[in-house]
Amino acid sequence: MSTSVQAPARVPVPVPLRPWVAGAEILSYPAAGHRPIVHLPDGAAALTYCKGRLVVTGPRTRAGYVPAKEVRQAVRIRLRPGHALPVLGVPLSALTDQAIGLDELWGPSGHRLAEELRGLGPGPEPVLRRLRGALLDRADGQRTGELDNAALVYAAARRLGTARPHALPEIARELGVSERHLRTLFTRGTGLNPRLYGRIARVRRALATVTGADGARAAGEAGYYDQSHMGAEFRALMGVSPSAYRAGRLPEPRPCGTPPNA
């Protein structure tokens, strides 16, 4: 997701993986000299393979702008909110605004997987097939309790991520749990508190309409009270106003791995 990345080539997610994976895609990055690559705020974790590295990126609370790099491709598998925890094996709250090697989470098995990927043939398709197989292996045999918690978190995330989100107490009542319990599960399972998750969902919707001329209409469709509300929240998460973003006046790019709040 970036202003200088070609439209991702989305690839099918096998049926057994759909409860765990929100989507899989091949990203093509442009040559140096283009505008910075923009990593959008994101309420989901992802597994990315690029230039021989297999990296887990946690939820991102603010946009990151990094210098355009040489032409290359990356494979990314975006995990469903709530379902990343059982697959990755750690609370997502430990991964917020972080990018770490999978071997740090999976140990020797993560290291072996990265080695296997580096030994595959050219092109992203073999990498995708092997990654999907590895995730299926991790998904199999998960404990019932963890799966139940993942389902609760995902159900809450879907309600919080709409243009007209439900309040957390209402969601908790619908799901048959206490608000305190749901908040704890949600933060552990997504790495974000419910309010911040909703803010990120709104700004991602705003990005789909920010190029339009009618700012008030775009604000309403994205779920904001008004255009002023959208502008303030957009600036807080994207680092620039909607008009500046639309015009390409972006923050100074910073190297990959720089914390978004630094």
From TrEMBL:
InterPro entries: AraC_XylS_family_regulators (IPR050204), DUF6597 (IPR046532), Homeodomain-like_sf (IPR009057), HTH_AraC (IPR018060)
Pfam families named among the record's database cross-references: DUF6597, HTH_18
Coiled coil ranges: none
Keyword Transcription: yes
HTH araC/xylS-type domain ranges (all copies): 168-248
Protein keywords: DNA-binding, Transcription, Transcription regulation
Keyword Transcription regulation: yes
Name of the protein described by the UniProt record: Helix-turn-helix domain-containing protein
Organism whose genome encodes this protein: Streptomyces orinoci
